[in-house]
Amino acid sequence: MVERKSDNEFNQTPSKLPRLTKTPTSSFQSSQSQHPANSTFPLSQPQSPTKGSRSRPAFDVNARLESMELLYTEMKTQMEGSNFEKSHHKEVQEMMKARITELEALRDHLSEINESLRRELEDCKVKLATFSITMDEARRGHSIEVEEIHRQHRHAVADLESAHGREVEKLRRQAQDLEDQLRRNGQEEIDRLLRTHSEELSSLQRQLNASIEEERVQRVREVQELTIQRDTQLQKVAIDIGQRDREADTLRMQLEQAHVELDREKIMASGLRDKLSDAAANCTTLGSSMAAMKAKIDFLESDNQQQSQSFADLHKRMQEAIEQERIAKEKLRDEESVLRKLRNEVQELKGNIRVFCRVRPTLEGELDQKANIIFPDAEADKKEITVQGPEQVSSLGKVSTTNHAFNFDRSFGPSSQNAEVFEEISQLVQSALDGYNVCIFCYGQTGAGKTFTMSSSDGMIPRAVEQIYTSAQALEEKGWSYTMKGQFVEIYNETINDLLGKAEELDKKKHEIRHDMQRCKTTITDITEVPLDTPETMESLMQRAQKNRSVAATKANERSSRSHCVFILNLVGVNAVTGERSEGVLNLVDLAGSERLALSGAEGQRLKETQSINKSLSCLGDVIAALGQGKEGGHVPYRNSKLSYLLQFSLSGNSKTLMFVMVSPLQAHLQDTLSSLKFAKKVNNTHIGTARRQAKVKD
Do 443 and 333 fall within a single domain? Predict the structure, then answer.
C-alpha cells in the first residue's frame, strides 16, 4: 500500500517530488497502457479489509505529477513576467546608480574645491598676519627715519639760512657799491636802457601771450573738428552696417519668397495648362452648342407662336431646375453634416485610444532566426496576433512553449504596405478637418519601422496631408475654405528643438510648452510655422525636418532616431454659406526607439540619449497607467517629461488618439516585442472620454 504523504511534500516543486523506484516499472507501464492518462489506479493489488487493518484508496502519482507540472509551468510563466519586470526595474536602478555616482563625484569634486579654498583662506590669513606685523615694524622704522631726517633738515636749513644771510649781506654791499658807482658813471644811460629793455620785454610778453592763445584756440578747434568727424564716421558706419544687415535680411526673405513664388507659379502654370485644355474642350462643346442654338433660333423664328410657347416652357423648366438645384444643395449640406456626425460617432464607438499593431518584414542581410508570429484571423477581422514565447524546459526534461495572444483594433502582417495601413486611419485623419484634435503616434523598439511608417515618402504624414488637401478641395463646393499651417519639432534629451528653423540656431533657442485649458489647445513658443499651400510644399518641409533631426548608429540599429519627432498640422475652416468655423489639430508623432542598455552598447553621449529616451517612454507609460485607473480627479503625471506634457490634451480625452505599436519579426528581439505588445494592450484598455469638436457659428 502507498503511504500517505504530508502536505509539505505535496507543495514541493516537481524536482523535489518523490520518484518511483525502478522495481515496479514493468507493472507500472502495463497498468498505464490499460488506463486513460487522467484515470487513477492502484500501485498494488487492493487488499480486502480485515479486522484491525486500515485501508485507503491508492495514490495516483501520475495525475498528481501532471497537475504539479501544470502548476510549475504557470509559476514559471509568472516568474518570467516577474523577471522581465525585474530587468526593467534593474535598468531603472542602473540609471539611478549612474545618477548617484555622478552626484557623488560632483560632491567629492565640490569637497575638494571647498578644502582647497579653505587651505587658501588659511594661507591668506597667515600671510595677512605676517604682512600686518611687517607693516607695523616698517611703520615704526619709517617714523624714526622721518624724525631723523627732520632733525637733519632743521640743522641744514639753519646752516643754509646763516650762510645765505651772510651772502646776501655781502651781495647787498656789493650792489650798493656798484649802484653808487653806476649812478656816478651814467645814471641817464642806465635809465634809458632800462626803459628800452622794459618795453621790449612787454612787447615780447604780449606777442607770446597772443601766440599761445591763438595756438590754444587752433588746437581746440582741431580737436572739436576731429571729434565731430569721428562721430560722423561712426554714425555712418553704424548706419551702413544696419543698412547692410537689413538688405541681407531683405534679400534672404526675397529669396525664400522667390522660392515659394516659383513653386506657386509652377503649380499655377500646371493648373493653367489644365484649364487651357479644358477651355479648348469647352470651346469645341460651345461650338456644337452654338450650332444647335442657331438651328433652334431658325426654327423658332419660323413660327412666332410656337417660339413663345417653347420659351415659356423653357423658362418654366429652368425655374424648376434652379429650385431643384437649391433643394439638392441644402440636402447635400445637411447630409454632409450628418455624415460628419456619423463618421465621428463611428470613431467614438471604436474607442478614443485605438491601437494598431504592425510587424515589419525582415530586411536584407538579417540572418537572425525569425520569431514565430501568426495572425489567427488574417482572413477575417485581422485583429488578433499570437507570439510564441521562448522554449522552456521543465524539471522532468519536457520542452514546452507559451503562446501569447493579443487582440487589437487592427493587426498588419509583414507583407502589408503603407497604402493599406493609411486606409484604416483615413477616417481618423478626416476628423481633423471636422474640427477635432487628432493624435497618431508610433511606439516600439529601435529598428521596428516607426520612421518608415510615419515619415517615408509614402508614409502616414505625407498621405495625411495629401488627403486633407483633397478633402478640403472637395468641400469648397459646399462653401468651406481651409487654411493649413505646419510645425515640426523634436524632443531631444528633454529639450525642444525647432526642426524648421535655422540649423545654426537649432539648440540655441529655448522653447516652452503652454496649454490653454479653456480651449484645450497646446502651443509651443518661438516655433517656426510654415503655410502649407500645396502638397509639394510638404515634401520640401519633410526634407528640412529630416536633415535637422538627431540620428546616430547603435549596436541595435545603424540609423537610430535619437529624438521624438512631432508634426503639428493646424487646420482652420470657414463655411461662407452657413458661417460655421472649425479648428482642428493633427498631431503625428514618431517616437524614438526604446533600447535595452545591455543590447545597444551605448556609451558617452549615446548612453545619455538612451537614458533620456527610456525615461520619457517610461513616463508615458506612467501616464497611461494613471489614466487606466479611471479615478475622477486623480493625479496624472503629465509634467514628468516633455513628451507626455506636450501630448497632455491628446491623452486626456479631448482628442481622437491612435497608437501604432511596431514590432520586429526576429527571434533575437522577442523580449522587446512582448514588452511592446503588453504596453499596447494596456493602452488599448485605457478609456479617456469623448473628444469635443472645436467649432462655432458666427453671430
Answer: no
Residue 181 is assigned to a structural domain of this protein? no
User: Is 287 annotated as a binding-site member?
Assistant: no
Is the residue at 397 inside a domain?
no
Task: Let me know whether 343 and 421 are in one domain.
Answer: no
Q: Is 323 within a domain?
A: yes
pLDDT mean across residues, the chain: 77
Long-range CB contacts (< 8 A, 24+ apart) of 328-332?
A: 332/478
> Span 171-189, mean pLDDT?
73
Task: Establish if 434 belongs to a structural domain.
Answer: yes
CATH number of the domain residue 600 falls in: 3.40.850.10
How far is residue 358's CA from residue 415's CA, in Å, rounded to a whole number? 10
pLDDT of res. 249 = 75
Residue numbers of the domain that contains 520: 352-369+417-690
All three cell numbers of 447, joined, read 529598428
Tell whether residue 445 is among the known ligand binding residues: yes
Q: Confirm or deny that 682 is annotated as ligand binding.
A: no
The answer to whether 554 is a known ligand-binding residue is: no
- DSSP letter (8 states) at residue 559: S
pLDDT confidence band for 663 (50 / 70 / 90): very high
What is the per-residue DSSP string for 139-191? Answer: HHHHHHHHHHHHHHHHHHHHHHHHHHHHHHHHHHHHHHHHHHHHHHHHHHHHH
Please tell me whether 401 is known to bind a ligand.
Answer: no
| Strand order from edge to edge, sheet including 384-388 | 373-374, 384-388, 403-407
Number of domains observed in the structure of the chain: 2
pLDDT digits (tens, 9 = 90+) for 600-629: 555 667 788 888 888 888 888 888 888 777
Question: DSSP H helical segments within 350-449, as ranges?
Answer: 418-433
- Do 360 and 331 sit in the same domain of this protein? no
Among 650, 468, 467, smallest CA distance to 572 is for: 468
Q: How confident is the model at residue 2, as a pLDDT?
A: 40
Question: Are 604 and 638 found together in one domain?
Answer: yes
473 marked among binding-site residues: no
The reply, when asked if residue 397 is annotated as ligand binding, is no
